[in-house]
Amino acid sequence: MTLDQKRLLTVLLAAEHQETLRITDEQAQRRSPSVAQRALLAHELTAQVRFADIEDDLDTAVDEATALLEDLHTEVKSLILVEIFGEDREPRSPAEAHEVIHRLTTDQPDQVQESEARVGLAIAGILAGLYLAGGRRVIEEAERQGVPTSALSPAALPVEAFQEQAATVAQHPWRRITRKIEDDLSDQATLARPQITPDEVERVLDDIRIDGSRDQARQATQTTAGQGRIDTVEQTPELEPDQIWSSEIMDGNQCPACEEVDGRDFASLAEARQLYPNGPHINCHGGARCRGTLIFLFGSS
C-alpha cells in the first residue's frame, strides 16, 4: 500500500467513525430509528422528525396485532386436527386427510369465520389508532418547528375504514395453514402410505410459523401510519408545507428504488403523493413493506 493510499484509508476510516458517532447520538435523542446506518440528512434534522417515536408506534401496533394472530393460529391448528382425525385422533389414510383439507379450503367452518371477524375488528381498531398517531406525529414536528398547533387535530377515520385491510390480515393464518397442509398431503410419497397419524400432522402444523402473518400486519401498519401522516398535512390548512422531501430508512435492507428516491424534494404535496399515494413509496420492491415516508418543513420554521 502506497503512502497516498494509507492517507486515503485513514481519512475514510475517520469519516466512517464520525458517521457512527452521529448516528449513535441521533438515536440517543430519538431522532433516528434503531436500525439506521446513515446519519440524518440536513432536511430531516430541520424538520424535527423523531423517527424513533414513529418506529415505536409501528412496533407496538404490530406486536398487538401479532398477539391476536397467534391466538388465531393456535385455534386454526387445533380445529384442523379435529377436522381430519376427529376427537378420538384415529389415524386416517392420506387420501381421506387430503379430502378433508381440500373441503376446508372451499368451505371454511363457521367457527373460523367468527374468529376471523373478531380478530379483524380488533386489528381494524389498532389501525385506526395508528392512523391517528401518524397525524399526531406530524403535528408534533410542526410544533417543534415553531408552528402554533394547539388548535390542530390529526386526521381521523372510523374503524370501518380499515376493515378491509384488517380482514386480509386476519384471514392470513387460515390461508397459510390450510395451503401448507394441503401441499404436504398432496406429496406423492405421503399419498403412497397406508395411513398418517395425528402426531405427524401436528408436527407439520407446529412448524408453520407466525412470521408470514406478522409480515401481513407489518404491511398494514406501514401503510396506515404513513397515510395518517400525509392525510393530516393535506387536510390541515395551517400545515401548508413550504418544502417536502422523501425519507427512506437506510439500514442495508432498503431496495434500490427506495435508495434512489431517498432525500428527493417535491414541489408540492400533489407531486409527492404520486410517489407516496397511501403512505409507502409506490415503487418499493417490497410493496407495502416500504418504511419510507414524506417529511415536511412548514412556513413558521
Structure description:
The chain is mainly alpha-helical. Helix content is 62%, strand content 5%. Strands 2-1-3 form a three-stranded antiparallel beta sheet. The longest helix has 35 residues.
Strands, helices and their partners?
Layout: H1 3-28, H2 42-46, H3 51-85, H4 94-106, H5 110-144, H6 163-185, H7 188-191, H8 198-206, H9 211-235, E1 241-247, H10 256-261, E2 265-266, H11 269-275, E3 293-298
Antiparallel strand pairs: 1-2, 1-3
Helix pairs in contact: 3-4, 3-5, 3-6, 3-8, 3-9, 4-6, 5-6, 5-9, 6-9
Please name the defining characteristics of this protein.
elongated, 3 strands, 3-stranded antiparallel beta sheet, 11 helices, mainly alpha, 301 residues
Structural class by SSE content: mainly alpha
Mind describing the biggest β-sheet? 3 strands, antiparallel
Amino-to-carboxy terminus distance:
49 Å
Query: What is the β-strand count?
Result: 3
Shape: elongated
* Uncertain stretches of 5 or more adjacent residues: none
Helix and strand run: HHHHHHHHHEHEHE
In short:
The protein contains eleven helices and three strands, in the order H-H-H-H-H-H-H-H-H-E-H-E-H-E.
